[in-house]
Amino acid sequence: MWFVILLVYMLKASSAVEPSCQVCSKFDYERLLERVIRNELTLKDTLDKITKTNAKVEETLKRIETENAKLNLAMQGLEEKKRTIDDKIDALVDTGAKNMSEAVAEMKTAVQSLVKQTAQEWDVMKENSSVPHVMFHARQTTTGQRSYTTNQDVVFPTVLINDGGWYSPITGHFTASVAGVYMFMVQFCPYLHKWAYLEIVHAGRALQSSGHKGEDVIVCVSMQAFAKVAIGDEVWVRISATSEIYHDDTRSTSYAGLLISL
């Protein structure tokens, strides 16, 4: 409406300023008024569109502000949750490290206790099952070849070891001072192209026998026997048939025994 008022005002001003025109007609003024009205309508439509657009922009800005506020709240919530999770993780790590340290300490204590207990049990076992040191080793003395007859005892006069003193270099017999399982060993060297027959005897009974014939060179052989021997039992070496035996420092005829178990 203010456009109409403006138009009337302009018409009055024009009438007051300009002299009356003989050529201008009423039709010209109507056309001018019509054009002004059309411009007013166009301007009003444009203004309405601008107003609506402005309203939409304001509404969009409000929604953006609202979403931004929600996003800020969500970010704050996430930060709070992150701090809570970090605190829980730190607490779990501290607790786990503490528990692990305690577990390692307990394990170390248990291992030390087990080692100590095992050592004590081992000491007891050694005390209860200790095998006395009974051992002897003797050999021939004279270098050269020697003849033996059947059932002749072989004496080994040179004593190398005689723990307990129960081997006799005079008789060649070993007398057991401790009951148990013994191992006995004899090494002998048959003379060139001659036979040698020896046996290990326990309480008059042969434990092991061996016979060998010498060749072009003198070669030594050995035999072993195991026996459960009682206290006072004797074990010795005996010739089971006529024999020819050789001895020197490098080819030794010898006799040995060892207590291996009670």
Count structural domains. 2
- Give me the Rg, rounded: 64 Å
H/E element string? HHEEEEEEEEEEE
Q: Give the class from helix and strand content and strand pairing.
A: alpha+beta
Distance between the termini: 136 Å
Please report the number of helical segments.
Answer: 2
Trace the largest sheet across and list its strands: 3-1-11-5-8
Give the low-pLDDT segments.
13-20
**Roughly what percent helix?**
40-55%
Key words describing this protein structure:
single chain; 262 residues; alpha+beta; Jelly Rolls; 2 domains; five-stranded antiparallel β-sheet; four-stranded antiparallel β-sheet; 46% helix; rod-shaped; C1q domain-containing protein; secreted; C1q_dom; signal
Structure description:
There is one protein chain. With 262 residues, this protein is of the alpha+beta class. It folds into 2 domains: 1-130; 135-261, Jelly Rolls. Helix content is 46%, strand content 28%. It has helices at 2-17, 26-129, and strands at 135-139, 144-148, 158-163, 174-175, 180-188, 195-202, 205-213, 221-229, 234-241, 243-247, 254-261. The chain has a 5-stranded antiparallel β-sheet, with no helix packed on it. A 4-stranded antiparallel β-sheet has the order 4-9-6-7, with no helix packed on it. A two-stranded antiparallel ribbon has the order 2-10. The longest helix has 104 residues, at 26-129. Residues 1-16 form the signal peptide.
